[in-house]
Amino acid sequence: MERLREFASRLPDHQIAELLNAEEVRTPTGKPWTAGRVASLRKQHAIASACPVEPGAVAVRGDGLISTAEAARRLQISSSRVHVWVGHGVLTGDQRGAGSDLWVRLSEQDLVRLSGQMPCADFPSIRDLMRLHQCSAKEVWQYVRRGDYLPYRRRAGHRWEWRFCHQDCPREKP
């Protein structure tokens, strides 16, 4: 129970289940863990979760993630754009399963990087990377998801554009 209390202070139920299953720990009845079984055991022992799966209960979860709506508000974009950015690897997030609520990690450095306040005009554009790697835009976003590039958002007249800093970029990353 102490381990469950400690996990519940920093992890959502589905991640607790994954962790316990990876350690080959079974439920008291010998079954593999599911998010529902973790939630049920927490409820039986009055252990609160600091990482709820539905937004509204807490502003910031125990793992530091915020709701999609809150991330959208802070970034001044739509919630659907937050989902796209998580899919591209611009932001990191956690989602229990398809169709469930998405929670997002948004640091102060991310806010600066995505607000257009960070000087990045000398970083390559998406077209530059497409030429360099002889690939499609979709493949550039795969590089981002892999961690090869960190994307920066930059105002270009009346529109926004992406600029990319390679992981070995000599410039200080936020």
Description:
By secondary structure, the protein is an alpha+beta fold. 41% of the residues lie in helices and 15% in strands. The chain has helices at residues 2-8, 13-22, 35-44, 68-75, 79-88, 108-115, 126-133, 137-146; strands at residues 66-67, 92-95, 102-105, 149-156, 159-166. The strands form two sheets. Strands 1-3-2 form a three-stranded antiparallel beta sheet. Strand 2 (92-95) and strand 3 (102-105) form a beta hairpin. Helix 2 (13-22) crosses helix 3 and helix 4 packs across helix 5. The model has no long low-confidence stretch (mean pLDDT 89).
Counting DSSP H or I runs of 4 or more residues, the number of helices is: 8
- Tell me the major beta sheet: 3 strands, antiparallel
- Provide the helix percentage: 40-55%
Q: What series of H and E elements makes up the topology?
A: HHHEHHEEHHHEE
Structural class computed from helices and strand pairing: alpha+beta
What is the count of β-strands? 5
Q: What are the low-pLDDT stretches, counting only 5+ consecutive residues below 50?
A: none
Overall pLDDT: 89
Largest beta sheet: strand ordering = 1-3-2
Radius of gyration equals 19 Å
Bin the strand percentage: 5-15%
Distance between the termini: 39 Å
